[in-house]
Each structure stands twice: as C-alpha cells, then as structure tokens.
Amino acid sequence: MTETDGAIVSGHKIEYRITERGSPHFAAVPFAYVSSEKTEVAVKTDFLCIKKDCLAILLEKSTGDIMRREDIQILRDIQKNAELAMKAVDTVSDKIYDDTLALQLSRQSLKYSQLRNQAVDKLLSAHLEPARANVMEQMVVAGGIHKDTLLNTSTSHIAEIIIQESSRKISRLCQSLHKYENAGDEAVEIAREFMDFEEANIRQLRKFL
User: Fold this and answer.
1) Which of 9, 143, 144, 191 is deepest in the core (most CB within 10 A)?
2) Is the predicted pLDDT of residue 9 greater than 50, yes or no?
3) Cα 32–chain centre separation
4) In Å, how far are 100, 134, 153, 154, 197 from 207, measured between CA atoms?
C-alpha cells in the first residue's frame, strides 16, 4: 500500500490513496476526493488510473455525481433542521388533546421525514456522509418544550410552540441560503420547499391560537 498527499490537476487538489498493481507508474483506486478553496467535489468512479510520473489523471466509467461544497452544506442543514423539527413534534405529541392538531402535526412530521430523506439521498448518491445527529441540540429542543409545557398544555400553547419552531427553521434555512449563495439548483430547491412548507404550517397552526 502506497499513500500520497495528492497532486494539483486542473486547478484542483486531488487527494488519493493508491494501491500498487505491479507497475511503478500506475495505481488503481475506486474513489477520488477532489477539493479546492471554494468547491468540494465527490467523484465516484469504477476505476481511477493515476500515472504518477507525469501526474496524468484518467477517470474511466464515471458513475457518480459531482457536488459542490455549498450544496453539501445546504443539504446537511436541511437534514439537521428536519431532524430537529421531527424531535419537536415527537416531544409534544403526548401532550396534545385536540385530534385536529394531532393530525396536523402528524402530517408535518411525515413531510419533515421526506425532506430529510431527500437531502440524505443526495449526499449518499455522491458518496458523502450525511450530517451527524446533534444529540445535544435535540436535547435542548426537547428540554425547552418540556419546560414550556410544564404548566400549560393547552392546544393554543402547543400550537404557539410549534409555530416558534417553524419560524426558527425558516430563519436558519434563510441564513444557509444566504451563506452558500452559489449552491446548485437542486439543493436550493429542497431548502425552499422546506421553507414554503413551514410557512404553510404556520398559517395552519395559527387557527389553533
């Protein structure tokens, strides 16, 4: 097994781990990770051939997706916010006595799960890891809800809490889109779908106030 720090090819730093195949000039690896200052790209290939003496890179039978750093960050933000939203709904679920509100939040939770899965699927298709679950942040959300409902579990109060949570998600995703303004259409589209969904949720939940 031979390792190298990489090479500069077409303005990108190619970081790779190579396995010798009986030749002093060529090596084969199944995966290449490409990064530059503003771009993080994952390239999945069936075969990567590296001619080390002249730094020639040959990608054959490319089967993967190319994803920029901005897209990755937005997709991970979508995933994290959807997971926090599901945690909030799950925390209040046993405190709800209004069947209509319970149905509304059940529908919301299902959509959050779908949005999360969209983001995760995009990351996995590019051989990238989804965001790690932030257990501490989820505990803060659940703890805050338990504290806020300790003396008041009225339908209007529960609705107000979830409205506040939805508003936070909109704010966080707006910040993410502003920070990563060069993200591609697919990631932005999912983020905007999330934000539109939350705005619709707020309109529905206001009926319970």
Assistant:
1) 191
2) no
3) 21
4) 11, 32, 17, 14, 16
| Predicted confidence (pLDDT) per residue in 93-122, tens digit | 999 999 999 999 999 999 999 999 999 999
Coarse DSSP helix, strand, coil percentages of the chain, rounded to the nearest 5 percent: 55, 20, 25
Q: Is 145 helix (H, G, I), strand (E, B) or coil?
A: helix
| Structure-block tokens of residue 133 | 């679950």
Residue 82 near residue 113, CB atoms below 8 Å: yes
pLDDT in tens, 188-209: 999 999 999 999 999 999 999 9
Are the C-beta atoms of 89 and 108 separated by less than 8 Å? yes
143 Cβ contact list (under 8 Å, min separation 6): none
Residue with tokens 């299902």: 110
Whether 60 shows a pLDDT value over 80: the answer reads no
- Beta-bridged to residue 60, according to DSSP, are 47
Which residues, other chains included, contact 195 with Cβ-Cβ below 8 Å and sequence gap of 6+?
169, 170, 173, 174
80 contacts 63 by C-beta, under 8 angstroms: no
pLDDT-derived band of residue 126, with 50, 70 and 90 as boundaries?
A: confident
